[in-house]
């Protein structure tokens, strides 16, 4: 569910740049609502724990928080906090018990979930018990922890900086891997007094793991097994939509920078209201919502439950930095899996070398299971195979056995359990 909306943004921005619209001051611009949706963060989003607390006041949008999402099904949940070495305050969530497990007290094996681009810990529990992998594993007696990365809807806080500061948004998946992931893994292992954990990552959640293990290889010892859903590292090809706009991307970046836009698609009352109204079952615009998703992720009308759109779009997209998207762009243009390129002087300041850091996939020595979709536009087979070629310890490389399985199906497909999760659970049980 990662990079989907990037492309919409980029295409819309392209149209704007081309038209040289001064839309910021032009209230009559038809683009205004779209721009607001994509970039502006507005107040009015209220996280609640129980839906009965929801008031129907106009302008107030409420949505459940992670604990509310989980407790509504009688699973127990917790929220934990950790601060990264560079000052970002992160929220980690936990499903600590399942109603199907009688003795929730005994020491359990930890499974750590890391979401991808534009997602949050909510993305793992939006569909519900007996459907979402996180609930299924909790039912098997695992201790489920779910990470959140800097800048998403839960992690907009820093010891010094504010999300209004440019500096707050100067990060990409390099920092997610080297700083966020390491801090969260250390916290979870220390808290649970475990030596190792099982890692489940989706999309950029897999990229972050590769980076962590390449830059800080000592973390290999803390991970028992990595389940990588739609892994993203090496780029051999990009989808048609991206290819179409690739030459414009640097211009778009410039445009965003000059307009002081550092964040894209935050979760906000506006985004939720639009998602709930435009994509609802009775809305004539629902087909448009579906087409947009198919354009970005790959088309799979069969496994997409459009009835769940309003629910899904109450938690997604959850925000990302412009720099993160630009980092992906740099990687697919150079065909190199390397850190963000700040150019000569900037690189020296960041990395103490004038070139970006090359990530060495050969240092990922933990056993890995790679699952990919045949119709995934954001993690296409060619890229997954190229990544696979560089990995020294892949114990399973598997295509989900459904021809049209796309990037978001890993989280939302109506029968993800039969097609994928049962297999994942089997592997985790074995290790
Ligand atoms: C609901 O919105 C009104 C104004 O639109 C605001 O004054 C009020 O504080 C909001 N309610 C909550 C619980 O934030
Ligand atoms: C949760 O537990 C309460 C009390 O035991 C019960 O009334 C309710 O039906 C349960 N809810 C679900 C979704 O299982
Ligand atoms: C480890 O956890 C204990 C409590 O369980 C806490 O007191 C201690 O500060 C933690 N250590 C680190 C390095 O987080
Ligand atoms: C689709 O989503 C709705 C609303 O979340 C749910 O009630 C329904 O069971 C789902 N259908 C399938 C086939 O999963
Ligand atoms: C990867 O590591 C192994 C063992 O450490 C080494 O034998 C091999 O040459 C390395 N491959 C590359 C491409 O660096």
TrEMBL record:
Record Pfam families: Abhydro_lipase
Span of domain Partial AB-hydrolase lipase: 69-126
InterPro entries: AB_hydrolase_fold, AB_hydrolase_lipase, Lipase_euk
GO MF: hydrolase activity, acting on ester bonds
TM helices/strands, residue ranges: none
Signal sequence region: 1-19
GO biological process terms, semicolon-separated: lipid catabolic process
Keyword Lipid metabolism: yes
Active site positions, chain numbering: 203, 376, 407
Keywords assigned by UniProt, alphabetized: Glycoprotein, Hydrolase, Lipid degradation, Lipid metabolism, Signal
Homology family: Belongs to the AB hydrolase superfamily. Lipase family.
Entry-linked PANTHER family: LYSOSOMAL ACID LIPASE-RELATED
Protein name as annotated: Lipase
Organism: Cardiocondyla obscurior
């Amino acid at each position: 569910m990662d990079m989907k909306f990037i492309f919409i943004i980029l295409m819309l921005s392209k149209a704007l740049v081309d038209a040289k619209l001064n839309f910021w001051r032009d209230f009559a611009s038809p683009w205004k609502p779209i721009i607001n949706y994509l970039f502006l963060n507005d107040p009015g989003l209220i996280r609640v724990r129980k839906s009965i607390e929801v008031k129907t006041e106009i302008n107030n949008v409420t949505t459940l928080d992670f604990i509310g999402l989980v407790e509504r099904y009688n699973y127990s949940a917790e929220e934990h906090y950790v601060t990264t070495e560079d000052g970002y305050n992160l929220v980690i969530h936990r499903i600590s018990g399942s109603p199907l497990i009688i003795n929730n007290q005994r020491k359990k094996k930890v499974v750590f979930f890391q979401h991808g681009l534009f997602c949050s810990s909510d993305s793992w529990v939006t569909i519900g018990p007996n459907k979402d992998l996180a609930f299924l594993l909790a039912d098997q007696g695992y201790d489920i922890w779910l990470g959140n990365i800097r800048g998403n809807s839960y992690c907009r806080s820093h010891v010094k900086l504010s999300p209004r500061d440019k500096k707050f948004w100067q990060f990409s998946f390099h920092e997610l891997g080297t700083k966020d992931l390491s801090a969260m893994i250390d916290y979870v292992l220390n808290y649970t007094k475990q030596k190792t954990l099982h890692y489940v990552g989706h999309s950029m959640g897999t990229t972050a793991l590769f980076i962590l293990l390449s830059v800080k290889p000592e973390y290999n010892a803390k991970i028992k097994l990595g389940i990588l859903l739609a892994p993203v590292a090496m780029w051999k090809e990009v989808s048609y939509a991206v290819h179409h706009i690739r030459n414009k991307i640097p211009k778009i970046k410039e445009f965003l920078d000059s307009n002081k836009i550092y964040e894209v698609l935050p979760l906000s009352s506006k985004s939720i209201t639009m998602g709930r109204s435009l994509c609802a079952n009775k809305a004539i615009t629902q087909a448009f919502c579906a087409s947009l998703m198919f354009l970005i992720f790959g088309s799979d009308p069969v496994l997409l439950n459009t009835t769940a759109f309003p629910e899904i779009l109450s938690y997604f997209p959850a925000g990302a930095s412009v720099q993160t998207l630009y980092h992906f762009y740099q990687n697919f243009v150079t065909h190199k899996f390397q850190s963000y390129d700040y150019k000569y002087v900037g690189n020296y300041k960041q990395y103490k070398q004038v070139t970006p850091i090359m990530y060495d996939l050969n240092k990922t020595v933990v056993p890995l299971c790679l699952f990919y979709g045949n119709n995934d536009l954001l993690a296409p087979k060619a890229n997954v195979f190229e990544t696979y070629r560089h990995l020294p310890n892949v114990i399973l490389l598997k295509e989900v056995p459904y021809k049209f399985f796309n990037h978001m199906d890993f989280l939302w497909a109506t029968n993800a359990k039969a097609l994928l999760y049962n297999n994942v659970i089997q592997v985790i049980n074995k290790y």
